[in-house]
Specification:
Number of domains: 1
Distance between the termini: 37 Å
Structural class: alpha/beta
Strand content: 15-25%
CATH class: Alpha Beta
Number of strands: 7
Shape: globular
CATH architecture: 2-Layer Sandwich
Order of helices and strands: EEHHEHEHEHHEE
Largest sheet: 7 strands, mixed
Length: 220
């Protein structure tokens, strides 16, 4: 049987490099292998929300109310032993102009995170990596960016690694919703210095990397 490692990805921050843009861009991946036991708890939570009167189609940290958010973080923390969390944090003002184009910035940041993740996990008898991202957040240029992602990853990732990268709606995978929560907590830590939510998932965090200039990576 093929042994697959799944990586669910989400991002926080925007692609605006002007003073009006977010200070940081955060890319977070949550690594899991089947069976995904946490999905049962999230499913129960979702139906509890419906029975309470909430119109909960899927979990989204930024818009979920405090009580729902707290419950989902409890579930993630209780299942932290079944996942590994990797984050890449970019201080955008220090990125050179040549890397700021839509066709370069996101694909290269994604490549840095995946290269690090695969290096960490590769030795564990994994036959294939299945990488699932939310729909790319670059409206109007999605097809060009998807093409750039494929070519950039082909250049950056080891040639002997089998992987697929898929772009799905967040509502279609609890894994993407978990990544959304973890990314939100990481961005909040860096943006506001608020570690309250990050500390609840910290036991699953394997790397909290900062990239400030091309080729310059720091581990925190």
């Amino acid at each position: 049987m093929t042994r697959c490692s799944y990586l669910f990805l989400d991002e926080s921050g925007n692609f605006d490099f002007s003073p009006n843009g977010t200070r940081h861009f955060v890319l977070t991946g949550v690594s899991m292998t089947r069976p995904f036991s946490i999905f049962q708890s999230l499913d129960a939570c979702k139906y509890d929300c419906l029975e309470f009167g909430l119109d909960t189609e899927y979990f989204h940290c930024a818009v979920d109310n405090f009580h729902v958010r707290d419950r989902v973080f409890d579930i993630i923390a209780a299942n932290a032993g079944d996942m590994r969390i990797y984050s890449l944090v970019v201080e955008k003002r220090k990125i050179v102009p040549a890397l700021r184009a839509d066709g370069r910035f996101y694909p290269e940041m994604l490549g840095h995170l995946l290269k690090h993740f695969i290096f960490q996990v590769k030795s564990r008898d994994i036959d294939e990596f299945i990488i699932i991202t939310d729909r790319l957040p670059i409206h109007g240029k999605r097809q060009a960016v998807e093409k750039s992602v494929k070519s950039t990853l082909a250049e950056m990732l080891p040639g002997d690694v089998r992987y697929r990268i898929l772009h799905h709606e967040s509502r279609s995978h609890y894994g993407l919703q978990i990544a959304d929560y973890c990314c939100w907590a990481t961005h909040r830590k860096w943006r506001d210095g608020d570690n309250v939510y990050f500390d609840r998932i910290k036991s699953a965090v394997r790397d909290d990397l900062g990239i400030f200039r091309p080729g310059e990576t720091h581990r925190y």
